[in-house]
Amino acid sequence: MVVHIPEVIEPDEKLPADLVTLRRFADLMDRAVAIPGTNQRFGLDAAVGLIPGIGDLMTGAMSTWLIIGAVRHRVPFPKLLRMLFNLIIDIVIGSIPVMGDIFDVLHKQNVMNMRILMESRNRRLPPRSGGRMLAAALLVLIVVMTIAIGGIIATLLLIFWLAEQRFG
Q1: What average pLDDT does the chain have?
Q2: What backbone phi and psi angles, to 5 degrees, belong to 90?
Q3: Sign of the CA dihedral 42, 24, 113, 58?
Q4: Distance CA 51, CA 57 (A)
Q5: For the chain, percent of residues with pLDDT exceeding 70
Q6: Pairing of strands 41-42, 33-34
């Protein structure tokens, strides 16, 4: 039985089409497949994250779509920063071998970010569109990729430094 709370979790037929698509995307990324014998689910984020080096960057780039959707639906700036933080944590920790793969299964940042978007969007104003959205999308993607690549490089340097301290 699915319970819908008005103004928080709206049924798909009452949502704008782009939010329905974003909700499905979040589920695909984080909850697409059940792990047999458990209540745990995982999605493309965890599966693609298994590709060494670029898997987490690819899913991070894909997940910026939710943040861009939040900008479109006028989510307040502090909430956008929280969504960005969730994404960066997912990319950086997800890039750590083995531990990151486990983290990707447990940390469902797309679903968390979708919840923030749904709870915080401004229903009084129409969604943004046009050139401003393109500029916002490019800015979000550049920021996420810059921070993610920097975080991954820092994580690799830390791993090499720890290995050198231990075995060097």
Answers
A1: 86
A2: -60, -40
A3: positive
A4: 10
A5: 91
A6: antiparallel
- Contacts of residue 58, defined as CB under 8 A and 6 or more positions apart, other chains included, come to 48, 51
Which residue in the block uniquely carries the two structure tokens 């599966």? 47
Distance CA 82, CA 90 (A): 12
Statement: residue 108 has pLDDT above 80: yes
Residue 129: its H or E element:
none
Please give, one letter per residue, the 3-state secondary structure of 15-56: CCHHHHHHHHHHHHHHHCEECCCCCCEECHHHHHCCCCCCHH
**Scanning the structure block, which residue is given the tokens 């798909």?**
12
**CA distance linking residue 64 with residue 83, whole number of Å:** 9
Give pLDDT tens digits for 92-103: 888 887 888 899
Cα–Cα distance, 27 to 66 (Å, whole number): 12
